[in-house]
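quick one before i forget lol
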Amino acid sequence: MLIFLLVLLIAGLAGFGYWAYTQGYLKSILKFGSDNTTKTSQGAAKDTVPPVISSVEVSSKAIKEAGILWQTDKPSSSQVEWGPKGSFGNKTEVADDPVSGASIGTVTHGVKITGLTGSTDYQYRVLSHTNGSADATSDTNFFTTPSE
């Protein structure tokens, strides 16, 4: 039981430490050098370097929907831009958005796109941003939905 409580305490401190670091509190205490951040008027640090996107893939395909997965090197938002092959024009809602303040973002992303048609070629690209960076955008990828 004691070991369990120690693990919980350490995990809690690690979570608090990460939160404090992302808010800029630890950076000023530790006096880091240039860290690619800028301060907002509220004093919270903004990460100005876009995340690096990797491992983009279609996780599942159904006739009318597809799941898209990817990873980033730091917590960031999740969004997919897609359309029939040859054009984009559709975007999912932004999820895990650190700009909104409702989330610190995520490094493992998963978005479901819906409204697809069977036996159709689609193209897509993923977009992610931190609380102060421009969107990072993946290369264009393709998939075909199964027939009805």
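fyi DSSP finds two helices and ten strands in the chain.
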